Amino acid sequence: MTKKLNCDHHLTSPPWSDYELLDSGENMKLERLGTIIVSRPETQALWKKGKPDLWNTAHAEFAFQEKKGVWDMRKSVPESWELSWGTVKFFARLTGFKHTGIFPEQAPNWEWISEKVSKLEKPNVLNLFGYTGIASLVAAQAGAFVTHVDASKQSLDWAHDNARLSQIPEDKIRWILDDALAFAKREIRRGTTYDGIILDPPAFGRGAKGEVWKIEEDLPVLLETLKGLLLEKSGSFILINGYASGYAPRSFAQATESVFGDIDGECGELFIQESGSTRVVPAGIYVRFVR
Q: Can you give the residue ranges of every domain in the chain?
């Protein structure tokens, strides 16, 4: 019987102690990150705000002015502040790209990574487009040796700071400043293999040496490369996220199936649950499977 990815398996991230989606609507979302409340654009939030008065509590609001993003500081906000998810700790920061270094919709995937890693014997895990590295920290704490790759030195340094904050030993994560596809191709030539692979490819990006990434051209090539890097053994896994890819879950699923063949796993949308409400904010897509 042919195995197919189940694309009706949507994942919803509920609030946790250091993160809460307080309200959303009118193309904005209001979030609590620890003790700091921020208001940011959210194109998915086409509905009316549910708690209009609550928005006055925001410490900072992000807006685009003259094609440039700026934060309107209404209260004092530290340059960085500490948050945690379970036993993993990391820093939140307000960036010029509206991001805070935290993608809370990934919490169900962090649980999945921890579970899959813990079932393997000292696995090697590759995290491409690793950004601030929470998935890398989760995998390392669960027992993996992680190779974390990102083309941005700023993001790589941030991820390394998060690892130190989480007290993860230096020999548990290898930090690589490189283009994801170029690195993966070199790993093939070296004969390297991995028990688990995590990636969150952007729609467009540039590598550490100016390499251009276009998802419509490069994702199929990267998937073919990853097929050669993933160990063909029971328990090996892949997790692919699409935060800003612009594609439907089934598109990612069929791209993955066309390379890996019959695979047993899930794909779907990622949602963030609004606190005290049945509403959710769509926040990306994912595909994941285990051999």
A: 19-78, 84-92+98-290
